[in-house]
Design brief:
Largest sheet of chain B: none
Keywords (chain E): ATP-binding, Nucleotide-binding, Transport
Shape of chain D: globular
GO molecular function (chain E): ATP binding; ATP hydrolysis activity
Chains: A alpha/beta (337), B mainly alpha (326), C mainly alpha (347), D alpha+beta (539), E alpha/beta (343)
Distance between the termini of chain B: 11 Å
Order of helices and strands of chain B: HHHHHHHHHHHHH
Radius of gyration of chain D: 24 Å
Helix content of chain B: over 70%
Structural class of chain D: alpha+beta
Number of domains of chain B: 2
Protein name (chain E): Peptide/nickel transport system ATP-binding protein
Bound molecules: adenosine-5'-triphosphate, magnesium ion, nickel (II) ion
Number of strands of chain D: 22
Largest interface: B-C, 73 and 66 residues
Number of helices of chain D: 17
Radius of gyration of chain B: 24 Å
Organism (chain E): Kribbella pratensis
Helix content of chain D: 25-40%
Strand content of chain B: under 5%
CATH class of the largest domain in chain B: Mainly Alpha
Number of helices of chain B: 13
InterPro entries (chain E): AAA+_ATPase (IPR003593), ABC_transp_ATP-bind (IPR050319), ABC_transporter-like_ATP-bd (IPR003439), ABC_transporter-like_CS (IPR017871), Oligopep_ABC_C (IPR013563), P-loop_NTPase (IPR027417)
Oligomer: heteropentamer
Chain lengths: 337, 326, 347, 539, 343
């Protein structure tokens, strides 16, 4: 296994304080390895974005990080906990080490500044020693990399199409050549053609620059195709984690299974679409035990009382996958570290 | 460029409508300038003198409202606003020329200052929610709920006086001749401090509040989070990302408030005996001085329109989205 | 005069928020408005003034116009707020004057609100030439400064009572509200649910009254409160500068007398202060209600109760955008951990 | 108002060093307009026109019956029952531009008034105007007995300047040239400064510079008076003792003598039951003029009218008919009640019922902003309740009020009368049948109460056109009798020509002891006062 | 012909909609009226008991077609026939009569229900407008049961915000069913819904089609779902229809280069890790609709583009599979080329 760059350990995020707090992310442990694409899937409200923002400490109030640590391993030097950084250190850490691409590029770009200004802003903040012309050159180069010609540098966001804006955001995310890029549904607003173009470009760039991607989406079929590993979230927890192929071929958690069965396939046999009955849980009134149990076709007594632990399933001999389920054969034998 | 034509039509129409209203409203008032003068000279004007005034003002001749209206437009286009009755036979234009600078200087500058201060405080209040600034809001609300004239009078009583630094009335020391002399400007500034202060107190909270609310709204926009994520300095995010965007909706509010200047200035000028245009209007209304009233309204209307135009332009400059091509 | 105009346009660019908190019944959500401390304070004070407006004339110890031999007396047990140059009891004047103020304020607010709804909503909904005409009309009214206009109009009406003053103020101050409502209606008009209702076959007037209007309630309410503030201020100003013809007592009349008798120069502060404070308190109450409405409409504006967070090690961190507080960076996992078995350790 | 700036410095320090006099009026910002004919000019509004333009004869405004003091005319003579006037013009008077003043200028000054109705404020029916040598002869188309003072106090303007003006009625006269001792030094909307000429046909006054400041309102003016930055003014100051006099009891003085004009409660004599003179007399008997004077008029502004004839004293002492010489207004509730019962009214408990059994109610009305009148009305309302009349005070809109008064649509209102050199103006204004118009018809210039008395009309006519003093006296006595017996208006106060002044820097002001002229800075006599002023401490 | 010919309910022919572009100062001088060519010359047939899918990327004019068919917009040109009769209604009673037979479901379940009204209100209005009140309470229950919101009492008095997205969409459908229509225009009825909920709503639609014998226009940009739910699929590009035919044929054997691009771009889990755009694949962006490309609108992006493509508008060419057609010059002369073009 490759070396980790970002280790999320026992991560907890609450919205609000005290008794009213909504526990949006609970006890998430996840590792992003160097150079890999880690997909994070799950339906709306399962806490994917919350986790992404939490890792970078960008959650808006009333979000608080109520526990856990995020260990970052720089390419050279000692690992440190992002949660322990001071504001100033955090500012330095951001974008230079970990950048983030949000869902809606229109909203991510400040409508009143030129894209060049917004790009150069980052360089200015992190590499003040660079001369202005060098900054411009760097920004230009990056934009070229994502397929935007230099003459669009001085455009305002609204003058670009959705796909171009999204590419600008990706270019901006890479401008400081960070180790980790977090992408929160970066392509959901685009049509499939554009989506494929951008993802293809991203794959190419990753090969060139060697960063790792945490890719968030609820489109599982996209993830299967695009990412190396996939983690499935449900109700604020990771319920399953495996290599894409493994997950696609043989998902262990009933929820992952349901998800995979919800997508109509375009090619091949017309599969039967089962879907998942019921509706997503309310974070305020989480079901006891496994939060999926009310919707789970295979639920049994234990599911409603005990929260399953994420771990390597006991029954079959899997090495690098884990699941949180009480079903026979999936009960973990070991906690994923 | 997008709405230039539309705007132009709007300005022309509004100017026409407002000026027409300006023409008709004074004429709806019963009574005439002479009866008002009688009031002014309560008991000291003989019946004969009154008749001579009708002749003097040319009110003994009856012109139809329509022909007056046509004349009025003729005058407006020639920049000739007629002769004031109150200050007969001084041309209205002269009176306005004399009072306008005062209003612009005092109320214009304070409105601007109030906007700037209020907006800055609002930026801070909205950015650091829950800090002391936020707690000050109810206090400023209370201050702004005080009727302006009451605050002004109270300020005069408490702060102004013969032994005080603050003069209680006037635009400058009575003995001075207006001009670009140090003593005159000093005196003018000294006389404007108290009125300016009271205007500030009662108007600043509105700006604080709108700006704060805009900041709060903008602060939850994605691009702010992105700006934080980019590791920009706090200041840069606050000023160049949040405040810059939050300011936009306030620009047109500011332009509109320029329109309310004269409405508000009326009370300021009454209370502080300030020689501005609002006081002219007050006098004109009291004296049924139609030409003066029309003149003041003309100035107000035009300045509001100009302010709006400026706001449009400012908006155009500040918000690239309105510059959209194609 | 500077009645704070409502900031609702700025606050809700997109109209009523999708409720942030699904699951809470709508009725309870409405009550939550009252639970807002600002709104509650404002409402209580407003209720108090309304009460005085109703019972003021009965509980007033004296006839407010009755002269007595106590000329310009400072406050005393006999005259709580002192007396005027004619020996009139100022406390009674304030009590009796409340009715006029509240009446004019509320009525003018009603008139202006009704007009702004009529004009703003129709302009926004009908669009086209009707919209152009109506918005031009409101623009003209916006450009004409309201107070001078009110002064002029008020002085044209022969012997106007409270009713007339209220109508004049109402008829001259609807433009702002109309503009806000128009903008809002424009954005609502193209909402899917309006289109959907149209596709179901609803008639135009039903679309306006049942689909659009309910969604404007908060804006209308806040516009109403804003106009009431403006109307109260205008009314008092009119009385104060001696333009309005109100024969009955109101706070402005008291101030007018105080001013024309140069109460402050005479040292008769008691003649001047109570009415002014009453106005300020009423104005504040109304503004507070408006804050409440704004916050109700746009929950983001609510300052959350906890703006400071205590971390585990006792530091207190402020919640703010961009830097999420970390309560404890070494919290023990709350879920049970399966203890490793010894044999696995070896393996 | 400030303590610095050169406005005050010259007058500070030792009072004997004073060279400047600060005069104030509460008339708001002015425009540069020195045309003496126009009441709207700064010169008229602030009163400085009298420092530049001088009258032919100086007549003491509070003693109009005394012969005037020769000024630009040394002699004047009325002939042919006041239809002809011969004037002898003073020699050696020079205009401020150095040109001598001649009879031509005087004649031209009359010509101007004759030619322009707008300038002929007193509507004098000029006939011929001829100048020869130092004589000017005028004829009039009617007897000018009642107008004689108005004609004699006409001010003189230089022909060589005025004949060049395009339209004298519409000229702001930026550079006024007159015979007076002062010329305009500078003008600002707030302050007009006048400076002393080098030469003058009389002794030069001691005041080197006059500063006329226009304050925006009474409050500002009062403040200025109280703190001494204004030394002379005419303004209504409520509670004048506390607000003004007590601020400097030694120097802050005021003197408000009456002139021949009055204020009173005009009653619509066509409205029942107020068409009954007995009711009006009874009302008169209960009105407390002391309260009105002290509370409504701050104890000084409009003096009480004492004589029951309504003629202000002491200005009109000499006109009062012998039978009314010592009859003064006094509150007499019992007398009033008797008067009413005699006339068939009944007082039932608190309510007065007229002979037909209807309760008597009355609406007293005045514009909302006129605080002194409104105060007066409040007092009258109270007073009337003592004889069971239920009065309400209606604070009307000013314009509507004017219209209603003009058209006779009112019950009763505080209003003024004309004033003049004799009580004729008062009575003519109140009772002249010639200007009587029915209720509902406007355009009246007096007799708002629609008082219809042929007897009074006849007496007025006689007075104006009488050939001799005896006829005039008889006519005036008749008018007084009508006034006392019919009470078409209930007089409350006299008009005033007073002023508030400070003796801190300047002394020599007119007062009770030295009544050489009214103390109002906007009256013609102001020039006399200025000429009479001496620096304090110089005596 | 595999396409079973059932009764035609609603058809459109030559349907065109141009939105005027707001004029600017510069345009005044040029004297030309710019328009957005949102929909051009669409031919569409809805049959009883069949689902017709309309797919195409965002902004290609799908919603506009739906709104035109629902008579919410006036059309610029063309014909809409209900049971063979041309209908043009703008409002009033006629519009109601039309709405009774043709109902539309809006794209966004979160926006298409008025937040201030309860479910009961929405449904009652729909019933009442079309005079189907009858036993109101019973009818309301029936409606809710039809869309599988059971038990009905639980939902009747809820406000939209108290419902999940899928539930809201069901209420929208129930509202449309309240009019007892013959044709249902469903404008991306599931695009806003979560993966796990989508399926339920689509299954419901299919079920309704079968039970109530409705004619359904199913608009989507998810071509995979069209394959599953629609009998017939039409592909739209920049305001024009480019291909049509039985769903299985269109998705498995796309003819038009745009359809091919679309299908190639759709995520496909079976293509693990081979993420890259084939060299011969078209790139670029959709054209501006204000000045659409001449000839075939797809030609600037098309890898097979010929000279003719940029000048002449391709008509519909029938393809070997019955009912399958494409508007592409590739199929002009030699229909056999289908194989080659489709790789
Ligand atoms: N400010 C907040 N206060 C309370 N709860 C919140 C807040 N913000 C988010 N949540 C809740 O936290 C949960 C996780 O939200 P999050 O945005 O992380 O979901 P997500 O998986 O990213 O969903 P999506 O796919 O829709 O983006 C949701 O159930 C949401 O309701
Ligand atoms: N009212 C309108 N005025 C002007 N242009 C419009 C209007 N409505 C739609 N358009 C334009 O018409 C084109 C087609 O829009 P339409 O909404 O039909 O697309 P769509 O295929 O439904 O897209 P989506 O998948 O995003 O819903 C777009 O370019 C759009 O900008
Ligand atoms: Mg998310
Ligand atoms: Mg659409
Ligand atoms: Ni105000």
């Amino acid at each position: 296994m490759k070396a980790p760059v970002l280790e999320i350990k026992n991560f907890h995020v609450d919205y609000g304080l005290g008794s009213e707090a909504v526990q949006a992310v609970r006890d998430v442990t996840l590792t992003l390895h160097r150079g890999e694409v880690l997909g994070l899937a799950g339906e709306s409200g399962s806490g994917k974005s919350t986790l992404a923002y939490g890792v970078t400490r960008l959650l808006p109030p009333p979000g608080v990080i109520s526990g856990g640590s995020v260990i970052y391993h720089p390419p050279n030097g000692d690992a440190y906990d992002v949660m322990a950084l001071t504001d100033a250190e955090l500012r330095k850490f951001r974008w230079a080490e970990t950048s983030i691409v949000f869902q809606g590029a229109m909203n991510s770009l400040n409508p009143v500044h030129k894209i060049s200004t917004q790009m150069i802003d980052v360089i200015k903040a992190h590499e003040p020693q660079l001369s202005p012309s060098a900054r411009v050159a760097r920004a230009q180069e990056m934009l070229k990399l994502v397929g935007i010609s230099a003459d669009r540098m001085d455009a305002y966001p609204h003058q670009l199409s959705g796909g171009m804006r999204q590419r600008v955001m990706i270019g901006m995310a890479l401008v400081l050549e960070p180790q980790v890029v977090i992408m929160d549904e970066p392509t959901t607003a685009l049509d499939v053609v554009m989506q494929r173009q951008i993802l293809a470009q991203l794959v190419e760039l990753r090969e060139r620059l060697g960063f790792s991607i945490l890719f968030i989406t609820h489109d599982l079929s996209l993830l299967v195709e695009f990412s190396d590993r996939i983690a499935i979230m449900y109700g604020g927890r990771i319920v399953e984690q495996a290599r894409s192929v493994d997950l696609y071929k043989d998902s262990l958690h009933p929820y992952s299974e349901g998800l995979l069965k919800s997508f109509p396939a375009l090619r091949g046999e017309r599969r039967e679409l089962a879907g998942i009955p019921g509706s997503p849980p309310d974070l305020r009134g989480m079901p006891s035990g496994c939060s999926f149990h009310p919707r789970c076709p295979q639920a049994f007594d234990r599911c409603s009382t005990e929260i399953p632990v994420l771990g390597i399933p006991a029954a079959r001999n899997y090495s690098n996958r884990s699941v949180a389920c009480w079903l026979p054969g999936r009960v973990p034998i070991s906690v994923e570290r | 460029m997008k709405f230039l034509l539309q705007r132009l039509a709007f300005y022309v129409f509004t100017a026409w409508a407002a000026l027409t209203i300006n023409f008709f409203i004074p004429r709806l008032i019963p009574g005439d300038p002479v009866t008002s003068l009688i009031n002014k000279f309560q008991g000291q004007m003989s019946t004969e003198a009154i008749n001579s005034l009708y002749v003097l003002f040319g009110l003994d001749k009856n012109a139809s409202l329509w022909s007056q209206y046509v004349d009025y437009w003729g005058q407006v286009f020639h920049g000739d606003l007629g002769l004031s009755f109150t200050f007969f036979p001084t041309p209205v234009a002269d009176i306005l020329k004399q009072s306008l600078p005062w209003t612009i200087a005092l109320v214009g500058i304070t409105t601007f200052a109030s906007f700037m201060i209020g907006t800055s405080l609002g930026v801070v209040a909205g950015w650091r929610r829950g800090s002391i600034m936020d707690g000050l809001l109810p206090v400023t609300t209370f201050l702004s709920s005080i009727p302006y004239f009451w605050l002004g009078l109270l300020a005069i009583t408490l702060l102004a006086g013969p032994d005080s630094f603050f003069p209680s009335s006037g635009g400058y020391e009575p003995g001075l001749v207006p001009g670009w002399t140090g003593s005159f400007i000093g005196s003018a500034i000294q006389h404007s401090l108290l009125p300016a202060l009271t205007i500030l107190i009662s108007s600043v909270s509105g700006w604080i509040l709108t700006m704060r609310n805009m900041m709060v709204t903008v602060a939850s926009e994605d691009y702010i989070t992105v700006a934080h994520a980019k590791g920009l300095s706090e200041r840069r995010v606050m000023v160049s990302y949040a405040a810059r965007n939050a300011l936009l909706p306030n620009v047109s509010g500011f332009a509109l408030s320029l329109g309310f200047i004269v409405g508000g200035t009326l009370l300021v000028e009454i209370v502080f005996s300030y020689p501005g245009i609002g006081y002219n209007l007050f006098q004109a209304v009291g004296a049924k001085d139609y030409p003066l009233m029309q003149g003041v309204f003309l100035v107000i209307t035009l300045s509001v329109l100009v302010a709006n135009l400026l706001a449009d332009v400012a908006y155009l400059l500040l918000d690239p989205r309105t510059r959209k091509e194609g | 005069m500077s009645a704070p105009t409502s900031t609702i346009t700025a606050v809700t660019p997109e109209g009523p928020e999708v409720p942030s908190n699904p699951g809470v019944p709508a009725k309870r959500r409405r009550l939550r408005f009252i639970a807002n401390p600002k709104a509650a304070t404002g409402l209580v004070v407003l209720a108090f003034f309304c009460l005085i407006a109703i019972i003021g004339p009965w509980i007033a110890p004296y006839d407010p116009s009755a002269r007595s031999s106590d000329l310009i007396q400072p406050p005393s047990g006999k005259h709580w707020f002192g007396t005027t140059h004619l020996g009139q009891d100022i406390f009674s004047q304030v009590l009796v004057g409340t009715r006029g103020v509240m009446f004019v304020g509320l009525l003018a607010g009603l008139v202006a609100t009704a007009l702004s709804i009529l004009i703003g909503v129709s302009a926004g909904f009908l669009g086209g030439a009707a919209d152009d005409g109506l918005s031009a009309l409101s623009n003209v009214f916006l450009v004409i400064p309201a107070l001078p206009l009110i002064i002029i109009v008020a002085s044209t009406i022969p012997s106007a009572g409270d009713l007339m003053v209220a109508l004049v103020i109402g008829f001259t101050s609807w433009a702002w509200g109309a503009r806000v409502l128009r903008a809002q209606t424009l954005s609502l008009r193209r909402r899917d649910y309006v289109e959907a209702a149209r596709a179901t076959g609803e008639s135009t007037w039903r679309l306006i009254t049942f689909e659009i209007m309910p969604n404007l309630t908060a804006i209308i309410a806040s516009g109403f409160v804003g106009t009431v503030i403006f109307a109260v201020m205008s009314e008092i100003t009119l009385a104060f500068i001696g333009i309005s013809t109100i024969s009955d007592w109101n706070w402005g009349t008291i101030l007018f007398w105080a001013q024309s008798q140069q109460a402050l120069a005479q040292g008769a502060w008691w003649w001047f202060v109570p009415a002014g404070l009453a106005i300020a308190v009423l104005g504040t109450a109304l503004s507070l209600i408006n804050f409440g409405i704004d916050e109700f409409v746009s929950p983001r504006l609510r300052s959350s109760g906890h703006t400071k967070v205590k971390t585990k090690d006792g530091h207190s961190v402020r919640m703010r955008v961009g830097f999420t507080p970390v309560l404890s960076s070494s919290r023990e996992p709350v879920t049970p951990v399966v203890r490793r078995r010894a044999e696995e350790e070896v393996a | 108002a400030c303590s610095n700036g050169d406005g005050k410095t010259e007058n500070s320090g030792s009072s004997s060093g004073a060279t400047v006099l600060n005069i104030g009026m509460p008339n708001g910002p002015q425009t540069e307009n020195h045309n003496p004919f126009l009441g709207s000019s700064a010169g008229a509004s602030l009163g400085y026109r009298w420092m530049i333009f001088e009258p032919l004869v100086m007549i003491n405004g509070i003693k109009p019956t005394e012969p005037g003091k020769p000024w630009l005319a040394t002699e004047w003579k009325w002939d042919a029952n006041y239809t002809k006037l011969s004037l002898t013009i003073r020699d050696g008077v020079k205009f401020s531009d150095g040109q001598p003043m001649t009879a031509d200028d005087v004649a031209y000054s009359f010509e101007l008034r004759k030619k322009y109705d707008g300038l002929n404020q007193d509507a004098i029916p000029y006939g011929t105007i001829t100048a020869s040598g130092n004589k000017v002869d005028l004829t009039f188309t009617r007897s000018q007995f009642t107008n004689q003072n108005k004609i004699l106090t006409v001010f003189v303007v230089p022909k060589h300047q005025w004949s060049t003006l395009k339209d004298p009625t519409q000229d702001t006269l930026k550079n006024p040239i007159g015979t007076g001792p002062y010329t305009v030094k500078s003008f600002t909307p707030q302050t007009t400064t006048l400076t002393l000429r080098d030469s003058y046909w009389q002794d030069l006054p001691k005041v080197k510079e006059l500063r006329y400041t226009s304050y925006n309102d009474n409050n500002a003016q009062t403040t200025a008076l109280a703190n001494g930055s204004s030394e002379w003014s005419f303004v209504f100051v409520p509670n004048v003792k506390a607000v003004y006099q007590d601020k400097d009891p030694k120097n802050h003085k005021l003197w408000f003598p009456a002139n021949l004009g009055i204020h009173g409660l005009w009653i619509n004599t066509t409205k029942k039951p107020f068409d009954n003179p007995a009711l009006r007399r009874a009302m008169n008997l209960v009105i407390n003029r002391d309260d009105i004077f002290n509370q409504g008029e701050a104890g000084y502004f409009y003096p009480k009218v004492e004589s029951i004839t309504g003629i202000p004293t002491p200005a009109g002492d000499s006109f009062i008919a012998p039978e009314y010489k010592d009859k003064k207004h006094a509150v007499d509730v019992d007398g009033a009640k008797k008067e009413l019962t005699d006339a068939g009214f009944k007082l039932e408990g608190d309510v007065l019922k007229d002979p037909t059994g209807k309760p008597v109610t009355i609406t007293l009305t005045d514009p909302a902003g006129w605080s002194d009148y409104i105060t007066d009305l409040e007092i009258i309302k109270d007073n009337l309740s003592t004889i069971g009349i239920k009065a309400t005070v209606d604070k009307a809109n000013q314009d509507a009020w004017f219209k209603n008064i003009d058209e006779g649509n009112f019950d009763a209102a505080m209003h003024w009368t004309n004033g003049g050199a004799t009580p004729f103006d008062i009575y003519q204004n109140i009772m002249d049948g010639k200007i009587l118009k029915p209720v509902g018809k406007g355009g009246v210039s007096g007799n708002y109460g629609r008082f219809n008395s042929p007897e009074a009309t006849k007496a007025l006519d006689q007075y104006a056109n009488a050939a001799d003093d005896a006829t005039r006296t008889t006519a005036l006595n008749t008018l007084q009798k009508i006034m006392v017996e019919q009470m078409p208006i209930i007089p409350t106060s006299a008009s005033n020509v007073g002023g508030l002044y400070s003796t801190k820097n300047w002394v020599g002001w007119p007062d009770e002891q030295n009544q050489y002229g009214p103390a109002q800075p906007t009256q013609q006599n102001a020039l006399q006062i200025i000429l009479n002023l001496k620096p304090a401490g110089s005596q | 012909m595999t396409v079973t010919e059932t009764e035609v309910v609603l058809e459109a022919e030559g349907l065109t909609k141009h939105f005027p572009v707001r004029r600017r100062v510069r345009d005044l001088l040029s004297r030309e009226h710019k328009v957005v060519h949102a929909v051009d010359d669409i031919k569409l047939t809805l049959r009883r008991g069949r689902v017709t899918a309309l797919v195409g990327e965002s902004g290609s004019g799908k919603s506009t077609v739906a709104r035109l068919m629902a008579q919410l917009y006036g059309r610029t040109a063309g014909d809409i026939r209900l049971h063979g009769e041309t209908v043009t209604v703008r409002g009033g009673r006629k519009f109601r009569a039309y709405a009774r037979r043709v109902q539309m479901i809006f794209q966004d379940p979160f926006a298409s229900l008025n937040p201030t009204h309860t479910v009961r209100y929405h449904l009652t209005r729909s019933l009442r407008i079309h005079g189907r009140e009858g036993d109101l309470e019973q009818n309301l229950r029936n409606l809710l049961e039809q869309v599988q919101l059971t038990p009905p009492e639980r939902y009747l008095d809820k406000f939209p915000h108290e419902l999940s997205g899928g539930q809201r969409q069901r209420v929208s459908i129930a509202r449309a069913l309240g009019a007892d229509p013959e044709a249902l225009l469903a404008d991306e009825p599931v695009s806003m819904l979560d993966v796990s909920i989508r399926l339920g709503v689509l299954n419901l639609l299919r079920d309704l089609k079968e039970r109530l014998n409705l004619a359904i226009l199913y608009i989507t940009h998810d071509i995979a779902s069209a394959r599953y739910f629609a009998d017939e699929t039409l592909v739209m590009y920049a305001g024009r229809l480019v291909e049509g035919g039985e769903s299985e044929t269109v998705t498995q054997n796309p003819a038009h280069p745009y359809t091919q691009l679309l299908i190639d771009s759709a995520p496909d889990p079976d293509r693990l890790g081979e993420l890259s755009t084939p060299e011969d694949q078209a790139g670029g962006e959709p054209p501006s609709l204000i000045a659409p490309p001449t000839g075939c609108r797809f030609h600037p992006r098309c890898v097979h583009a010929m000279a003719k493509c940029s000048t002449e508008l391709p008509p519909r060419f029938d393809l070997p599979v019955p009912g399958h057609w494409a508007a592409c010059w590739l199929y002009e002369a030699n229909p056999d080329r289908t194989e080659g073009a489709a790789r």
